[in-house]
Amino acid sequence: MLPNNLNPIVLTPLLVLSPATKKAVIFLNNQNGRMHHMFQTLWENASVVAFVDGFANLVHQGSYGKDYLPNFVTGDFDSITPETLAFYQSQESVSVIHTPDENETDFTKCLRIVNTFIEEKQVQLKSIIAAHISGGRLDHELSLIHTLFLAPRITTVPVYLVSDFCVSLLLYKGETVVNANTGYEGGHVGIIPIGKPSTVTTSGLQWNVYDEVLSFETTISTCNRIREPMFTVTCDEPVLLTMEYKLPDNTT
Q1: Count of beta carbons in the 10 Å neighbourhood of residue 75
Q2: What class does CATH assign to 165-251?
Q3: Residues 26, 111: contact at Cβ < 8 Å?
Q4: Which of 101, 134, 238, 250 could share a disulfide with 163, CB 3.0–4.6 Å?
Q5: Which CATH class is domain 14-164?
Q6: What is the mean pLDDT of the chain?
Q7: For the chain, which residues make up each domain, given as ranges?
């Protein structure tokens, strides 16, 4: 069952990008063969790191190599090369876990592994980030959102998607106050009714809605813009919030 916000809650989603936020990072495979532009920053500030399947190739075969050893390499291993797999299997500090079950995505299975680890080791985290590259197959991108819906059944730690453009998360039933005054804001936001129609009221955005049913058969809120340092979203069914981000000049 998905959570309900019986009382208004305050979230600061873009703080997941801050070095000060304790986080686990799952680096997801992508069809583009591109390294996530925040790899270095996320790596340096992560308490737990997992490489999913073919992403390990990008690190091992790229300029990072042996200096970047994650806690886990997981997946059904249909993308990782034999050479890369053998390398990580030879590293005592890396747990290589084959997850062949095709009833769940590699992301979902990795999330289960990471959550078990942080519970057993009692690692205190504010967030779990899944870093991915936008583009490629649409069905693959939709599967990432599906895992966001599954996440509350797997972990009590908030789960965020971090693409090369935006941070995405689910807002649950009730009122959410979003702090948009971190310095990471890129300006654009989206409120997407994934799964079921949702009656939504917002404030603090350029185009607010008032007790309006958002659905793919009626209206969705995309390309909206932040107009206040705090904005609110009230919904009666979960919605996907996407927030465009920008990085400080000294962040790579």
Answers
A1: 28
A2: mainly beta
A3: yes
A4: 134
A5: alpha beta
A6: 93
A7: 14-164, 165-251
